[in-house]
Amino acid sequence: MFDVLFFLIISLFAAMLFLNVFFRVKVFKYYKYLVRNRVEFGMNHFFDQPKLEQEVLTRYPEHQYEIQTFISLVRRSITMASILIVLITAFGYLLTQYR
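Now predict its structure.
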């Protein structure tokens, strides 16, 4: 059981690293585009969709697709990383109990 849990933890950690690099490359592409076109918005727009639509998308309608894709990728990255951290922590706890 120890070997299986240890393998799961290592696999989940490798998956988290892979997802981090994968999303970082994709997010950075859209980030460079938004910076190059001087599209500005804050962190509070990431999690408040009505505020994003009222304040940012009305100001930059020509960049709407890139803004929404960028925010979607950041949200998905945060969600996946959170799930992987919880799984790694849970399996780490089980590993300490079986040791």
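The longest helix spans residues 2-36.
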